[in-house]
Amino acid sequence: MNKMPSVSRRHAMAALGGAVALAASPRLFAQGARPLTWLVGQPAGGSVDILTRLVARHVEQALGQPVVVDNRPGAAGAIALQAAARAPHDGLTVVTIPGPILTSMPVPRIGKELTGVATLAKGPMVLVGTTASPMPPTLAALLAAGKDPKAFSFASSGNGTSQHLAGELMNQIAGTRIVHVPYKGGSQAATDVVGGQVQLGMLGITPVLPHIKSGKLHAYGVTTATRSPALPDVPTLREAGLPGFDADQWFVVAAPAGVPAERVRALNAAIAQALQKPEVQSGYAAAGVTPAPATAEQTTAFVVQELQRWQTLAKKADLPLD
Known about the structure:
Elements: H1 7-29, E1 36-40, H2 47-63, E2 67-71, H3 78-86, E3 93-99, E4 114-130, H4 139-145, E5 153-156, H5 162-174, E6 179-182, H6 186-195, E7 200-204, H7 205-214, E8 217-222, H8 237-240, E9 248-256, H9 261-274, H10 278-286, E10 290-291, H11 296-317
Parallel strand pairs: 1-2, 1-3, 5-6, 5-7
Antiparallel strand pairs: 3-9, 4-7, 4-8, 4-9, 4-10
Helix pairs in contact: 1-9, 2-9, 5-11
């Protein structure tokens, strides 16, 4: 009777598979046809762009293949997703997808027009409040006052984004009615929370970290089940009074569906190797995220499950996604 391999054996087999895939990558990719195009659906200089470029330079070295990061912002990332889905199925086009993001528009998705290649990172969001005007000092006091829909509003980087969804999950668990105010990006949202135009923000750590350190923003809690190394003194929302709260933002890499499996494995192995580089790990830590290597199959399954989870919330709360 066949037995499942032991944990240590499975790890050794996975490492061997990655090494074999990476060793084969020059044969698979270095054909001189064209560079590997890595699409990013957000502007240069933003979190998604920075996290992608940190890894891309090491992937280029591992594959022996030029890598060009191509920013195609617009339509909440849909332009880049559509370009990736239409690309040849040769493994020479990938796209970074931040998530979860929900939209009412029909866009290419992992598990359908796209296939998961690798997971780059996961990280928390943080609920912050302005210090430009008097605000409740604790999360418990904030949530008690937030049952009045006229009391507060929270800023996010847009409808259907991970920040919007995390804020609505807070409303659902706490029974609050804090009004969502969508922005076109996290930096603009953070600026308005600092200025007091919006009292609260549910945002990624990167745009708010300097303002938390300067005292211009008060951090009520991070959204993940464990504290963030970037904000070790800030409790989780679960610790601060929201039982069961757990929401993170994640960044994955996808390719057109139909790319040969050996090319997906080689890409995955190159990305996994890049995530181990000290430069990448320190850059990710500065951005408040953690490298999260995963197989292509694990990445696809994770994204499909995550989107189903948040679609259920959006439907229950009747959220506007446009």
